[in-house]
Design a protein that fits this description.
The chain has 526 residues and is mainly beta. The protein contains four helices and 21 strands. The chain has a single domain, classed as Porin, CATH 2.40.160.10. It has helices at 2-5, 8-28, 121-125, 289-292; strands at 38-39, 49-50, 140-155, 173-187, 194-204, 243-245, 249-255, 261-269, 298-308, 312-319, 334-342, 348-359, 374-386, 391-408, 412-431, 434-445, 464-478, 481-492, 496-499, 502-504, 514-525.
């Protein structure tokens, strides 16, 4: 029944519907030009970019009278200050009217991300979540926010109901991707010391891509929170449909040194990559291969962000292995260092981050991987350019290398694992409620040891190229609701002729080189 639904003429019909919706909104668009493609207000200096999925944020009003700096001294966008909100982002209420901003003095350079408009959590915590000048904790405020992300997906498979190795919307039919709750204390980063922190709890099908060794599993990678216990120590060995994860819990310290130094200590989202674990930070329902397989999705350790001048930031820190809270035996350590630059106009930004250190596996551990830790190097580059207030481009490149000796079969061995990927994104904002986006990715798993390792093992030392093309729309009828339809095409030249089921292709349980999917989810912010 599902396969009949996904015949070619129905794919064309879905694409035509999306195109007609975009064109209709363009015709109705007013002269409003929102600054919709902004650097992330959550982790700006790490190169992640926020798309219109993120609800608008505004500068925090503060009652202490401190002279404000000259306008020319203020950076033009979020990357210029750690955790700075997107400057110039459209602020609107569910009925479409502009909110009335409170007047009053503002702290010198004070910026702080604010909770997105939700259905009830904002009103619920308002009495205790007002900004304060803080005492021993410094300026900041408590916050509670969350969302539910759920959707459906249909695919072109004949033999499988999953979309693997495609990630996040990886099941055909309905799935609850994320039931997400976040709370803690946000800090105002200005000219005073400040202390804060955050705890995130998530339940849904996306838990698999946020799992960390020693947290949701034992240090030996045996699940003890999700799935059943097993003697198989393969990374994330038991893959249940639903599970729970703790994506983040960290302390944060802000020091008014130089132009500001931010320190995170604990367990947090990876500081590498354009795409995020949080559904609200991504434009597309699905994820790119390099964001899931080519780099860590979580980190544990210490990361510092040093603001140098108006345009530059330096990132430096030390973390555990990829996606590892703690591991058995010796703790393997990696250093992270990088830099970001954004011009004062806010229309060009670039970031480069390098991670290097010893670890047992890179993201997903394949069968035959040795127990000893080996040196792993990862390079992540991101470039953003805004052609206009409506039109923006993002390019991302990732290269990884692990020098371990890997067993292939019973006797064969080879040294080294290499992978690299290149993604291109284009975003066009029709109006404050509708944005069109496209993503094209090429990801090469050079020894066929990265994509799907630990879930669907295909060790054959056969180079595998993965190509994807996604067309998507973000429709925000209200500040608390985002609907994201996406049409996606995947192709891989992987072919393992000695596979148990015949030709070992990448999709449809090894039976196809291509995969067509149509998915749509809705994000409801609390």
């Amino acid at each position: 029944m599902i396969n009949d639904f996904f015949k070619p003429y129905r794919i064309l019909g879905i694409a035509a519907f999306i195109t007609a919706s975009v064109f209709s909104s363009f015709v109705q668009a007013q002269n409003y030009i929102p600054d919709s493609i902004q650097l992330s207000d959550e982790i700006p200096a790490y190169g992640r970019l926020s798309t219109p999925v993120q609800a608008p944020v505004t500068q925090v009003q503060y009652q202490e009278v401190i002279p404000a700096p000259a306008p020319s001294a203020q950076p033009a966008s979020a990357m210029a200050y750690p955790n700075a909100p997107a400057q110039g982002a459209p602020a609107y209420t569910p009925d479409g009217t502009a909110p009335v901003m409170e007047s009053g003095p503002v702290m010198d350079g004070a910026v702080m991300e604010t909770s997105c408009d939700g259905l009830f959590l904002g009103d619920f915590c308002e009495p205790i979540c007002q900004p304060s000048c803080g005492g021993i904790l410094g300026p900041g405020c408590l916050f509670v926010e969350g969302w539910v992300d759920q959707g459906f997906n249909v695919n072109s498979n004949k033999n499988s109901s999953t979309n693997l190795p495609m990630a996040t919307d990886d099941y055909e039919g309905y799935q609850l991707n994320q039931l997400y709750l976040s709370f803690g204390r946000r800090i105002i980063k200005a000219d005073q010391w400040a202390l804060g922190g955050q705890i995130d709890i998530m339940y849904g099908t996306d838990y698999y891509y946020m799992t960390s060794t020693g947290l949701e599993t034992t240090p030996q990678n045996i699940p003890h929170v999700n799935g059943q216990k097993t003697d198989n120590t393969q990374y994330r060995a038991i893959y249940t449909k639903y599970g729970m994860a703790l994506p983040q819990f960290f302390f944060e310290i802000y020091a008014p040194i130089l132009n500001g130094v931010d320190v995170k200590i604990g367990h947090f989202d990876s500081v590498m990559g354009f795409e995020s674990n949080q559904a609200t930070q991504n434009f597309f329902y699905s994820r790119s291969y390099q964001s899931v397989y080519g780099m860590p999705t979580t980190m544990t350790g210490v990361i510092t962000d040093w603001k140098i001048g108006d345009c530059w930031s330096i990132i430096a820190g030390g973390v555990n292995e990829w996606n590892a809270f703690c591991t058995s035996g010796d703790e393997d350590f990696s250093f992270v260092i990088g830099a970001t630059y954004e011009n004062l106009c806010g229309n060009f930004a670039v970031s480069a981050i390098v991670m290097n250190g010893k670890q047992k596996g890179a993201t997903f551990m394949p069968v035959g991987y040795p127990d000893d830790a080996n040196n792993t190097t990862l390079v992540n580059l991101i470039l953003k350019y805004k052609f206009s207030e409506r039109f923006a481009y993002v390019g991302e490149f990732t290269y990884g290398n692990n020098d371990a000796i890997v067993n292939e079969g019973d006797t064969d061995q080879f040294r080294g694992r290499n992978w690299y990927g290149f993604s291109n994104y284009l975003f066009y904002c029709i109006n404050e409620h509708l944005t069109f986006g496209t993503r094209f990715e090429w990801f090469q798993d050079k020894e066929n040891t990265v994509v799907g390792g630990g879930n669907r093992v295909t060790l054959d030392k056969t180079p595998a190229n993965y190509f994807t093309l996604s067309l998507g729309v973000n429709w925000d009828p209200f500040t608390w609701l985002t609907i994201r339809p996406e049409l996606r095409w995947d192709y891989s030249d992987l072919e393992i002729k000695d596979a148990p089921n015949g030709n070992g292709y990448a999709f449809d349980n090894g039976d196809s080189k291509t995969l067509f999917t149509f998915g749509c989810d809705a994000i409801v912010r609390f």
